[in-house]
Amino acid sequence: MELKPIIELIKENDPIEIASKLYETYKDVDYKFNAFITLRPWEDIGEDIKKARGELRGIIIPVKDNISTKGILTTCGSRILKNYIPPYDATVIRHLKKYGIVVAGKTNMDEFAMGNTNENSFYGPVYNPWNKDHVPGGSSGGSAVAVAYNGFIALGSDTGGSIRQPAAYNYVLGLKPTYGLVSRHGLISYGESLEQIGPIARFTKDLAYITYIISEYDENDITMPEDHRRVKMRENLIRFIEKGVSIEPKTYRIAYSSKFIDYADPMVSTKIHNVIDKLDSEGFKLKDIDLGYLEMGLPVYYIIAMAEASSNLARYDGTNYGLRIKAIDYWIAAGRSRADGFGAEVKRRIILGSLITMKGYENKYYIKALRLRRAIRDKLIQVLTKFDFILTPTAPTPPPKFGEALGPEGYILDLYTVIPNLAGLPALNIPAGFVNGLPIGIQLIGNYFSEDELILISSYLEDKIYNPRMTPGGD
Known about the structure:
Helix content is 39%, strand content 13%. The longest helix is centred in the N-terminal third of the chain and has 19 residues.
């Protein structure tokens, strides 16, 4: 499915009829791959479509279960929020509704977005539609699977790769926007200095359209700058959506590091070098450079993310909302609520985050990580003053089998994707083919507010290095 033909169909047909076909697709993907935590009743969706206004009336989309949706169960994949129904919509949901888009349901995810395999959900794992013995990636695994299996757009969130990595593992596009481009108001936080809401799609124009919609300014989010670059980027997106824009490959400079790429599995590394050769043959200007100490991004990311997680998740104490275990006093009740409500990976990150921010330890770990974060950012900006993009693999391996990458052993899967989050830069996964029948992707990192350029490159590469019509379930 592609958005533009569907818009034309909506003009000529009943929006309810269009939505019902999409709904059947989502029912199928949930039944086969456990992609949803909550798939809304069709009756409720139908009523919302009747009330909706806007040119996208009839479009229903999956939304990751850590994005607040008024009146719809929002669990973050956790037992501790198993009965939580938000009293308000996240800003991105309000933006979608202005165009007539209705939420189809809430997609399965690693608990509180802490994971990269979608095995850490209280509601069971999500299965990769290309091979059910393998993980779909995470933490936005449910959203990526819903798009890959005959869907077309969904929302996810990305703290250290949680949009791009499952996009790579499902052969779809996944965009982590510039930090501050998309409002975080209504996103249930894990690591607020790192995370962004972003789109997953099969076709580039669909990705552009949803990026345009959700990037409207929001005064409720103080991290959103009123930046002229942001305004210009959104204008360019509309121009691309309405008219299409061609590019001249020879005007683009792309940096990569063979040393950094070769940290990946040899079969992945070979595939990425093949893509580089293809880009070179198309006329792009590529250069193999030294990216310095960017491999330090992984430990830096986990120190900062765990510190922020331990603070953000302190609010779940069984008092105000969420799971509440009764006990004789507050401290026992809070302890039992958290012990029973959180899964093993979330507990691990809370404990480690609390440790590294304790007095006597913060200078040893947290402060050093913040300094290295700044150094990594400065290195990336230095490179991006000379080049338009930096190219890396999206993940160092093809999708692992279930159980192969649980816990700290799986943190290596984030090797390439954490870097843009540390710097707040935009990054896009583009499908790059298959290794042993399993999808992999390339990651393009751009400068701040260069989402329009990333999307133009992706559009150019459609049908050159990937086929957006290819799905595990067929068209």
